[in-house]
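Researcher: Structure prediction, please.
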Amino acid sequence: MKKLMLMALITMLILSACSSHNDDTKSKYEPEEDTKATNEASLRLEDISDDDQKQVEQLIEKYFKALEKKDYDAAWELTSSTQKRHHPKSEYTDEHVGVESIKLVSMKGYLPVTLSETGEVPQGVNTIWFEVKLDIKPKEGSAWDDGENLRFVVVEKEDDGSWRIDALGTNPQFTN
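Model: Predicted structure follows.
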């Protein structure tokens, strides 16, 4: 238990040190400082309904299906208003042009470390945090790896109650 907490603290310190030195190194699609992206600090597990979880699962499937079809307009419409406000559509589309093909292989719910030491979702508990495995064939010069890519989906609940994709993180700490 103490080792796990120590490792988590060290990881958080390293991540904060790496991220604070230069904002230019941030991914174009990382949540901005002013984002209202849903995270474990602002949402209690008991507030996540069965319907929320189903909506987020359907959103993720629809989003990656649109990317698989290279329907960037449809994928853009599924992104959060925060991302749309900070990143023009052309920038978003350019990011995905570097992918020859993308396919959602699997999706698994998890809980952030602040809500669960193991990350496992207990039976009967809903989640809006998902780890996705993607099969990607990148074009030359793309930032994506060829083959299996693991990402953690960050979602945001809009004012109208709909869920939208806010970012894709490379580790669960990114979703804090």
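Model: The longest helix spans residues 2-20.
Researcher: Thanks, that helps.
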